[in-house]
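Journal club prep — side note

Before the paper discussion, L.F. wants everyone to see what a predicted structure for a comparable chain looks like in token form. Sequence:
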Amino acid sequence: MGVLRAKFALLLGAVALCTLEVGAQIDYGNRLGRRVDERRVFSAAGRSMLIDALDPTIQRWYLPQELFTEYGRRQWQYTNYARDPFLRYVSRSQEGFYFYDPYGDLITRGWLIYDWRQTQPLTSASNQVTKRGEYRSWFNRLIISSDTSGDYSYSIVVGDELFTTLTPLTFRKTGFNGVVTSLATQRLRATGLFSRISSPIIDISADFPTRQLENATNLSALRFEADVSDHLTVGATFINAHSNNGALESFQESPFTGLLTSGQLDRRLELLVVRLSDDSPEDGEGGAVLFSDDVEITTTLMREVAAGDSVTLVPRDTVITGSSIGYRPLREGGKVRDGFLTADGSERIMLKYPLAVEDGENEAGTLRLLLQQSLGLSLAEAEDAVTAIKKVRFRLILANDYRVEVASDRQTNPVDQPQFLQVARAAGNIKNRLNQQEVAFDYGLPTASQIYGLTAEMRDWYGFDFYGELNVNTRYRKYPTTTLKKHKAIAGIVGDQHDVAYMVNLARNIGPWRFFLEGFGMDDGYSTNVRPVDGRGLVDYSPEAIIQSYDFVDDNDDNDRHPDQLRRYQGSLIPIPGQYFLVRPNGVADPAVFPGYDENGDFLSDFNQNSNGERQNFFPDYDEPFLRYEVDRPEFLFGIDLNNNGWVDRFENDDEPDYPYKKDHWGYNFYTSVQVNPEIRLTAGRLRQAMHQAARDNDTFYGIFTFTKSFPTLGRWRLFDMVRRAEDNIEDHLVQWIVPRAEFGQFSETTGSNVPVPDLLAAENTWINTLYSDWEYDSPRGWSTRHRFKMDVWKQREAEVILARDEEGRVLLDDEGAPVVAFDPLGPEGRNGRESSSFVGLINKAAYAFSWKSIGISPRIKSEFMRRVPFSRSAPQERSYDVLYMVLANFPILHRSYVQLGVEGRFFYDLKGDEGQLAAGEQTGVFRGTVLACQLTSTRAYSGYELTTQMGVRFDRRSLEIKDGDGERKTSGLVFLSVFAGL
């Protein structure tokens, strides 16, 4: 018995020990995840069964089985919050939803902020972008994820308004909407850009945070840079924008050449149109000459093939030449000259190729009918042959200055009108037919645009600095056949499938000498603009639909946050001062573009600083009382004008992408400069560039002299003189910010706007000299003086008129005995310009500031003389003299308040006309003006802000001189009370 008792006690102890061990190891199921290396991973593992939760009772519980061991059954417990505080059902860290990755591991419990996924094949929702309201509100449309380990740094940035640049010729956007991935090591840098440029979602809706598309255009871009040495960096760039069709299987075709969308494949193509025109219609001659045309059509026909003793019909790809079956285009327009159809000036030659027509329409001349008549096909067989077309190639023999465009009934605007896209242009402006050649091209709808290129940068290598960039642009098309699963990509024309752009900058400094060379070139067809497809897979190809396109390189001449051109989905996230902020999916163009006029970077013109969206001012500062002492007219700005269009290059604005060099401009610019001494620099150089397609040139030799000297007792004196000999017939048209000049002291009707400014080609063969000088001195005794002088002179060379002569060479005379002019290069039939044009301006200012007791007093005087003789004879000459004198006074009252008083007098003389030729009662252009102003300003801190309160009055009286009469008086007044809050 003793032994049995001992064994039983030992057994009970073992059972008790096992029970304690089991009780100490609670089964938590999947709640604690699993350990992988040093991480704890939670995975989607399905349901598990916990032994402890297997309680054989009929009573039901209402808790997850994982909580049974910890909480048991407590559903009968009474809730009372008098002493025990209310607890959240789950903690804040457990709010949201469970999210798992593709491997089944738990990512987090929270919220999906941003999601972009492409699923194929899947109709109606293959491309999905999700931006929840938290993306807009919590993160302000910007999410950044980054990591660093040793020398490696990595980041992913998701945003709607990202400034992004790859290279000057390939990608530069003010507001990129998409994903930017970046990697950097000590000698290697890489960047990836990804975006769905079709409907990228900027107007985020809480009810509809996901935008689902079956068809979309996606953008991918890569940029790599490697430091080969301390002096040399090489790089590679790849950019691709392609359309996608979610209904097709993944990687069924190369994604880089794009896919035809479901909207482009919903019916077959039945009409093709080729248009020939004059590439330089302004000269009215030498346009396109059509010698011959033909078309090659590749389709599938049933052909007899011997198989043993029998003959079977099998489908075979067959090339049908239009001329072999009598398939000729329907011709419209143009005129027959010397036996050939020609299009000069505004004339057009239309070649229409009908493949088939709808039932009931006239089928004469269609391919379907000719297949029946020439090849003996039945109607059904001809119908199948038209449907099975997979390639159409045009062959045209052309000469002179031609432009070739193509359209179809699948390349339309929203009302199904065919729209033309350019295919080829003639080089130069040939008019003698010596450039006769064949232009062969295949038809297709645009599906992708791609750029790849290389860069090299060298820094301070034996004194040399170098940057070079070469890029190749390919635009892919595909014929929209509905019978094939794979479509062959085509590009350009036969023999010329790509467009090239390059730039080279080389500089070297040797002591006081500097040498600089820049070479550049860009094909006219080089393009960084694409038109994304909509959700239906369609594109509006009309010219006015350019606003729906997407630019790799923005037009942003003033280099601010706002792109200059109207583009869909772009610019809308930037508040416009003075306007109610509203996200506009159609996009917003920059309302004010004035490059070079915003040196302080406040997005306001430096010539109208007190005008903004909250309170517009219709007086530019150089015409506004009291402000006009400090601010001079923009006409007195000076600088380099190498394109000879009359505007300083850094102030120019146009409607083109901001490439460093313009399209179809090929050439170089070289200059040498020497610092003679600390005050004097001499520069000499030559610009040589040509437009291959337009046959225009710019050959400009230039020299520059600069002098700067500061005298201890006399102030600073600067002198700039640039002389040019230009032979420039390249048109550099601009769109400039213009503020209308006020008449006789009146305010303007607008604060300014962008106005087209044509290049009048005033430098076709011209001497140009720009001289600028200024002197300024600030005396320690309280007075200061400023003087500015500018003279710009354009002198036309070889501007003599050509006189009419008889067969013996004698000059013909008219009835009055004057020589008969055969051609005047500067007359109305020519450029209608003046042989000598100029601008001369002189500004003198003087001011003195002193105090009398507690009153600060500052008398000022300013005079301005300006004479302008424009090149165009249709523009009037100007000459005026303006004198201003004013006295400003200010004195404090109380502790934080002060009063400002001002009086200004003005004498303005319009010197351009002769008063003796005016009729009685007409204005002479002379007026006197007086302005009186008083202002009280108070400042104090209030509710965390610095409040500035101003109240005052201004009275303005002008007296306009009238010929043989009393002066006409005009008065105006202003009373104001304004409160400003600042930080």
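L.F.'s comment for the group: Confidence is low (pLDDT under 50) at residues 14-24. Keep this in mind when we get to the figures.
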